[in-house]
Amino acid sequence: MRALLVVNPQATTTTPAGRDVLAHALASDVKLEVIETSYRGHAADAAHQAVADGFDLVIAHGGDGTVNEVVNGVLRGGARAGTPMVGVVPGGSANVFAGALGIPRDPVEATHVLLQAIEHGTSRRIGLGQVFADVAEGADGRWFTFNAGMGLDADVVAGVERKRAKGHHASPALYLSVALKAYAQNVRKPQHFTVEIPEEPPFDDVGMVFVSNTDPWTYFGDKAIQLNPSTSFDGGLGLSALETLRVPTVGRYIAQVLATGNPKSAKLVRRDDVGYVRVKCEEPANLQVDGDFLGTTTAVEFRAVPDALTVAV
User: Alpha-carbon torsion 178, 184, 189, 192, what sign?
Assistant: First the structure.
């Protein structure tokens, strides 16, 4: 088996020593090549080249952003037979995709799971989400593995990216401070979205839009944040959209998310298995996929694609 290990040396918990141990362990079972990323999009380019070069497995060692790039590189040109499997060894701060697959968040334990999958030839075919918008590059849009959204959550992602560019370390405290600031801004100047899903009339004047491809939505430290607990890699997309961002509604929503992971409200539009979610707005709004800020747009379609990717697990 030919395998490419794509390492993001800037990820939160990746280290040169950890990379070397991982590479040594993998090299005993596969014909391994290693590449360290040096620019945004490098992991996607490397994974795409691995497809052309006939690799059997592409392993992402980094955070969810690295995983997202590897997936987009492997699937550049569309989901099709013969693409390499993807393996994951977490090295970021949240590692949501790995957690949703049951892969340990500890890199050493995750390496053991990956080696077992290689030895026994085990894998899982999963569904993904696709985003089509003017800021999602390429005719095939942008793939996402666990979540995407417009409005408030994308505002948070954009804010955190700005902070990290200035040298701030990714942490729950950073996300919380940015989220509170973004929420205050949304209260002062609400965003207004129209949401369309199959076989239902449009939902007008929605305040925020979360789209899930699996459960959990994300992690806050070690706590799983669940918005659509019935959503999985084996079904369609989950939608969680609040019609208003007023303090009482948001407060009850957050309390339910933290307490039960099964939020319900008369002001909440929630669906757990839909084929697409279309969102429109008059003013440009922020868009994020898998915690990666894409830019601003006024129209986007999130589409479920079943059996899109094979993961070694």
Answer: positive
